[in-house]
């Protein structure tokens, strides 16, 4: 079965938190055949995941707002030149909605929501769950 994994999270996530919550599940996914990754181009989880995936997988779809991504890893001696880049989205919400539609699975953690504010990450997690996407948890 093919897995299309949307990896996302908060923009202010620290590197140590990224390692705590994303490293083990990502490492396990790298060992599975037929796994593709979906990323967006914001700071935090998005850029850290790009840096991890650039030398590991050609099977990445990167979604971005406007004409070009806000961040893009180096293509030299990496797999980035094989990534599928889709742009032209008008907003983070429109881009994230497309990522949710494309995925079968998701890997995400939200650190920023509370009783007063729901982060974009939390909204995307809820959309994934509403659409029956499978959550990948830390191992």
| CATH topology label | Rossmann fold
Helix content: 25-40%
N-to-C CA distance: 21 Å
| CATH A-level architecture | 3-Layer(aba) Sandwich
List the total number of helices: 4
Strand content: 15-25%
Mean pLDDT: 94
Task: Give the biggest beta sheet.
Answer: 6 strands, parallel
Rg, alpha carbons: 14 Å
Which CATH class applies here?
Answer: Alpha Beta
Topology:
Elements: E1 3-9, H1 15-30, E2 35-40, H2 45-53, E3 60-65, E4 84-89, H3 92-102, E5 105-109, H4 120-130, E6 134-135
Parallel strand pairs: 1-2, 1-5, 2-3, 3-4, 5-6
Helix pairs in contact: 3-4
Descriptive report:
- With 139 residues, the chain is an alpha/beta fold.
- It has one domain (3-135): 3-Layer(aba) Sandwich (Rossmann fold), CATH 3.40.50.450.
- It has helices at 15-30, 45-53, 92-102, 120-130; strands at residues 3-9, 35-40, 60-65, 84-89, 105-109, 134-135.
- Strands 4-3-2-1-5-6 form a six-stranded parallel β-sheet, with helices on both faces.
- The two termini are 21 Å apart.
- The model has no long low-confidence stretch (mean pLDDT 94).
Core attributes:
Rossmann fold; alpha/beta; 4 helices; single chain; 139 residues
Short recap of the structure:
With 139 residues, this protein is an alpha/beta fold.
